[in-house]
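We emphasize that the prediction below concerns an isolated chain of 333 residues; any contacts that depend on oligomerization or on bound cofactors are therefore not represented. The input was used exactly as deposited, without trimming of termini.
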Amino acid sequence: MEKKTISAGIIGAGGSIGQEHLKRLTKRIDGVAVTALYDINKEKTDALAAAYGAESMESVDALIASDKVDAIVITAWDGVHAEMTNKAIAAGKPVFCEKPLATTKADCAEIVRIEQAAGRNLVQVGFMRRYDPDYRKIKAILDSGELGKPLMAHCISRTPRIAAGFTNAMQVTNVLIHEIDQFRWLFGEELVRGQMLAARNTAFAADGLNDPQLALMWTESNILIDVECSVNSYYGYEIGMEIVCEKGTIRLPLPAEPIVRSRLKVGNEIIDNWAERFPKAYDNELQHWINHLRGIEPTAGPGSKDGFAACCIADAMIASQTSGKVAAVNFDM
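Result of the prediction step, given as a token string:
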């Protein structure tokens, strides 16, 4: 594809991230037109299609096969990512799949094999933190070597509430997956073992869900990473990180807010959700994807092999949730 407008279809357009990407692709991303939408909720799909001038499709297969669609965006629920990605590859159409690429290692491996058989790189995975300006600055500092080698990283991942049906495994595949990919990218090496530890449960956790949890992960060179994962933090949404290096530290800043002093109190507002924290990252990653499809950007974004590696690490972390022990990561296809 050479510098033409890309016609995109969105699968899962009615969900929260689907609607965010629909607005983004139609209002802020250059070189793309959203021409087709599908969601399991047909009434919502019809309303969105009417509002955005797209066609409401009767099925996933119809959207992928449409000659009005050059490329596919998948924002449906995690469990169908693999199936839909494989259908897009089979149709020879580039696909942007939100994370995770799949929820099991076996399904991710199958995507890699099908893409390799197609003879083209067709998949980009929605690991958007690679495109966040603050994370990119951290990456540049680490790569410069000015602080010496990284030794440890401390992280928090707090979400005020989560939808019904959220499971312990999803704490890894849907939440921790961001830290898994970001550290593969930031440190330039694999995460080779990990452990998930349960804490005292918050009163807001649904039955059967351990929340919060603590993830411990080690890289090939033994950098130790700890991540506090909470999906019922109640008070707000916060993503934090500090990397400890030989000659100093790097701290991820929280979003800047005015600090207000008033009668006997001082404070600032805390954001409520991921869409408020990472709008620029999502803009950058989708613009990069479209630019790559148009032949403007030569470098591809994170692909199926990145999705597979992240899934291998996630599998080890999920195994640790049951065993309580440190689990080694198996990267075998």
